[in-house]
Structures are given as structure tokens and as C-alpha cells.
Amino acid sequence: MDYQFTIIVPVYNEEDNLLRVEKELLSYIKIASRKTKVLFVNDGSKDNSQELIETISNRNASFHFISFAENRGLSAAIKAGFDYADTELVGYIDSDLQTAPEDFNLLLEHIGEYDLVTGVRANRKDSFVKNMSSTIANGIRRAFTNDGMDDTGCPLKVIKTVYAKRIPMFKGLHRFLPAMILLQQGKIIQIPVQHFPRVAGQAKFGVWNRLIGPLMDCFAYLWMKKKYINYTVSKTSE
């Protein structure tokens, strides 16, 4: 099949969510505006996630997986998804399904004109502490990057694969995807999407991850911005 869009699903100890992920993504594939397949990236889960992923992939032709030998973190999982994607467009969604797969169609409406379309979570259904720490972290990141994005942590994005593959990922850089597209002189936009409470599994990020970690990552981003190589080939030999 000539797929056009790959949805990356990073997984770390999400056995309680995966059958729901299968159901929701199968439903989305039927209404997707682009021919879509799913790529699970198992980030060294310690539970039965891998067994479930293999079962799901074996019974659904549009579901595939890669599995890490050990836990390497969300940025590594996303980068692996970018590396293995073979479609024109790539996106990702968290396996906790706090965002809705059908909202990918809202993002895909804009991907022709833009190179990255990210969701911004409307009426977030998280705890006060999580919402406040994310708000502060986004403010810090926005001050450093000037990317104009209100919610880079939203786990619902669509990117042109040629841009995604050029992102020099490091740990924590999943928060800087819009800024990294801007470094490539790409165009970005944010679109409001739905948000829901987590219904199973455990959140993987605490206050430290959302505040101190992103602040440290901002300095790494500034270093990378200064050193980033960007070029356009105007002509080649035959």
C-alpha cells in the first residue's frame, strides 16, 4: 500500500492502554485524510507492552513496531520513529491517548502550507501542578526560542518527514520540535485540539522533568542554534 502518513506511538510501560490505542487508531485510520499507518516505538518497557505490541501488529497490516533494547527516553523514541518513517508525512501521539487521533485530520488540513503543525491543548484535563509547571516551562522555552508556540509539549504533531529527519535530536529535544523546524527555515503553526484525562497507566514526567529539565535543555538549544548548519543546494552535476 502507498501510505502517506506514519503515526509514531512511543511506548513505555503502557500495557493497560495499548488495546485502547489499537481500537482508537484503527477507528482513525478509517477516516484519516491521508493513507495512514502506525509505528509503535517500545522504549524498553518492563511490563507486557512488547507482547501486546507484537500481537496488535500481527493482526493489523497497518501497524508496525520497533523495540529498544533498553529505556532511552521519549526524545530517543521519537527520533527512532523519524528515522524509520518511510512516508511523506510523520506525526506522533502519546499512548496515554490524552489527545484524540481524529484531531490529526485538523492538523493535516494545514500541512500543505506548513512544515510542522502542532496541537495546542484546549481546556487541559491535567492536575493543577502539572498544568502550572507546563505553563511555566513553556514560558521559559518560548523566551529562549521565540518560536511563538504555547504548548510544545502537546503530544499531537504532524511534520513533513524531510524536515523531521534533519532534526539533530538530543535528550529533551522533543520539547523543541517547532524551534528546530524554524532553524531549517520551515513554517510552523499551532491548532487547538481536544484533551482528556489519563484513564490508565502512570504519567512519566514530574515537576523536575517539566521545569528544571527544560531550562537546562534551553541552553543546549541555544548552543545548537549557534552551531546549526543550514544549506540549500542550487545545482548538481548530472
Record keyword descriptors for this entry.
7-stranded mixed beta sheet; alpha/beta; 7 strands; Spore Coat Polysaccharide Biosynthesis Protein SpsA, Chain A; 9 helices
Can you offer a commentary on this structure?
The two termini are 32 Å apart. The longest helix is centred in the middle third of the chain and has 18 residues. The chain has 238 residues and is an alpha/beta fold. The chain contains nine helices and seven strands; from the N terminus they run βαβαβαβαβαβααβαα. Strands 3-2-1-4-6-5-7 form a seven-stranded mixed β-sheet, with helices on both faces. The model has no long low-confidence stretch (mean pLDDT 85). It is globular. Helix 2 links the parallel strand 2 and strand 3. The protein has a single domain, classed as Spore Coat Polysaccharide Biosynthesis Protein SpsA, Chain A (Alpha-Beta Complex), CATH 3.90.550.10.
Strand content: 15-25%
For the largest beta-sheet, the strand count, sense and barrel status come to: 7 strands, mixed
Helix/strand order: EHEHEHEHEHEHHEHH
Helix content: 25-40%
CATH class assignment: Alpha Beta
Per the principal axes of the C-alpha atoms, what is the gross shape?
globular
How much is the average pLDDT? 85
Specify the CATH architecture.
Answer: Alpha-Beta Complex
Q: Please state how the strands of the largest beta sheet are arranged side by side.
A: 3-2-1-4-6-5-7
CATH topology name = Spore Coat Polysaccharide Biosynthesis Protein SpsA, Chain A
Q: What's the count of strands?
A: 7
Number of helices: 9
First and last CA, distance: 32 Å
Could you name the CATH homologous superfamily?
Spore Coat Polysaccharide Biosynthesis Protein SpsA, Chain A
The structure class reads alpha/beta
How many independent structural domains?
A: 1
Poorly predicted regions are: none
Radius of gyration: 17 Å
